[in-house]
Design a protein that fits this description.
The protein is α/β, with parallel strands linked by helices and 390 residues long. It has 13 helices and 15 strands.
């Protein structure tokens, strides 16, 4: 391999949210990779830094071209550059769009178990959560489209937050599933905001369908949130985009971003995105292969060493959704128990909705030696849990 993903970088003492833990703890929770960014990106950032003047930047044409070319080459979707809007992050963008496109007290649909920030930004903006829970069947998730139809029919519901690919399960929604969502949204006059930040982190050989490309209806009702940050581990640089086809929605979104000061880039926002999309393909392909091997390691380890814990089948993200319902006792307490006894810190499934009470989320974007340490701690914790629940 051209790139070294086995190297362990010490992140303690670097003001990392993920690594603000006790010395003996191993954080494998938040979606933050323990790999350095691609050297091609770091070189571009260094070149910008070496210039020495960090005045107010603008978004150059190359930024638009980088997005358009990447989505065309990688995902077969030819975006129109005038429909792209820069923003400083997906979650701030979603929050601003909730305020602009809905009224206080109105409903916003989500599909739990789902990204935990969806809950907080809906409630924090004075809107109500309308749940369309995913169906967990035979170890995988699917949409309940009949229920979605009913939820969208409520006249107080004008917005849906979609996770594509799905976090935390890693499910890649098919084109037919997305088309069905688009048709229902068009039928009921609902805007679909699709969070596609994990879209490039699919298993090798697996693609994803951009919501806006699934059908004419999807393009008309949809707003796509995209970014290089999750893919290339650049979250701290605050760089993202939304793609809005409908002219009226695009004008309102632009207004909302300007009002909330989300449209002003820092000195590295455009530089990092351009470098990622123009020069990061080889790095990403090796990363995906590495994460795929880590996923296989986890699945094999669980099957052979901790059969009571099962990995939900996922084809995207670097997160594994662990079904811990096979453990005895009150499994909702297992995550806390695991951290206290072994130092392994995973995301509790409950933060993704009550449908996640019997689950934990494991981040596998780390060197193989770190993953081995985490799996050993998980096994030790499960064994101690079993002894305590005899």
């Amino acid at each position: 391999m051209k790139y070294d993903f086995d190297h362990v970088t010490d992140r303690m003492g670097t003001d990392s949210m993920k690594w603000e833990v006790m010395e003996n703890e191993l954080p494998m929770w938040v979606a933050d990779m323990d790999f350095k960014a691609a050297p091609e990106i770091l070189e571009a950032l260094k070149e910008r830094l070496d210039h020495g003047i960090m005045g107010y930047p603008v978004i150059p044409d190359k930024w638009y071209d980088a997005y358009v070319n990447w989505w065309s080459d990688r995902h077969g979707f030819k975006m129109k550059k005038e429909r792209l809007i820069f923003c400083t992050g997906v979650i701030p963008a979603v929050s601003a769009m909730i305020r602009e496109l809905t009224k206080p007290g109105s409903n916003v649909i989500i599909q739990p178990p789902v990204y935990n920030c969806f809950f907080s930004i809906i409630l924090g903006n004075g809107r109500l959560i309308k749940e369309n829970p995913l169906i967990y069947k035979d170890g995988a998730y699917e949409m309940d489209l009949d229920d979605l139809d009913r939820k969208m029919s409520d006249p107080d519901t004008k917005l849906m937050l979609l996770c594509n690919p799905q976090n935390p399960s890693g499910r890649i929604w098919s084109k037919d599933e997305l088309k069905a969502v688009g048709e229902l949204a068009k039928k009921h006059g609902v805007t679909v905001v699709s969070d596609e930040i994990h879209c490039d982190l699919t298993e090798p050989g697996k693609g994803y369908t951009p919501f806006a490309s699934a059908s004419n209806a999807c393009e008309a009702v949809g707003i796509s949130c995209i970014a290089p940050t999750k893919t290339f581990n650049l979250a701290g640089l605050k760089t993202a985009a939304v793609y809005v086809s409908d002219p009226e929605k695009r004008a309102r979104v632009t207004y909302a971003f300007d009002t909330d000061e989300l449209s002003e880039p820092n000195s590295f926002a455009a530089v990092s995105a351009i470098a990622a999309f123009e020069k990061g393909a080889d790095w990403l392909d090796e990363l995906r292969a590495y994460i795929s091997e880590n996923r296989k390691t986890v699945e094999s380890f669980l099957l052979n060493e901790i059969p009571q814990i099962k990995a939900v089948r996922g084809e995207a993200t670097y997160l594994i959704w662990l079904d811990i319902s096979g453990l005895k006792g009150d499994v909702s307490k297992f995550g806390t128990f695991l951290r206290s006894k072994t130092g392994l810190f995973l995301s509790p499934g409950s933060i993704f909705g009550e449908q996640g009470n019997n689950f934990l989320r494991l981040n596998i974007a780390c060197p193989k030696s770190v993953l081995a340490d985490g799996l050993s701690r998980l096994k030790n914790g499960a064994e101690e849990w079993r002894r305590s629940n005899l």
